[in-house]
Amino acid sequence: MKRLELYFIRAVLITLLMVIAFSPIAAIGYFFEGVASLTLQATHLLALGYLLLIAFCAFLLSPVFGENKS
Fold first, then answer.
1. What is the spatial distance between Cα 7 and Cα 50, in angstroms, rounded to a whole number?
2. pLDDT tens digits, residue range 42-69?
3. From the centroid of its chain, how far is CA 41?
4. How far apart are CA 48 and CA 69, in angstroms?
5. Rounded to 5 degrees, what angle do the CA atoms 46, 52, 56 make?
């Protein structure tokens, strides 16, 4: 039973990681679909905000903010 629980937890975590990895790709596609159809709705702007949040977090994780600055 314990091994089955571990496999189930691994499957859930892998699925969660796959969703997290796919979500920016889906957001980019959804945003560009709104731009192409010339109808930017609130959900398209939410997708843009999500992408900007990811870009901001990547910027904060960049080496620019590292402790060993020269």
1. 32
2. 999 999 999 999 888 888 877 766 666 5
3. 20
4. 32
5. 145
Supply 50's token pair.
């999500």
User: Which amino acid is residue 21, in one-letter code?
Assistant: A
Mean pLDDT of 21-38: 92
| Closest residue by Cα to residue 30 from 9, 14, 12, 51 | 51
User: Quick one: how far is CA 67 from the chain centroid?
Assistant: 26
Give yes or no for a contact between 24 and 54, defined as CB atoms under 8 angstroms apart. yes
Assess contact for 47 and 31: CB atoms under 8 A: yes
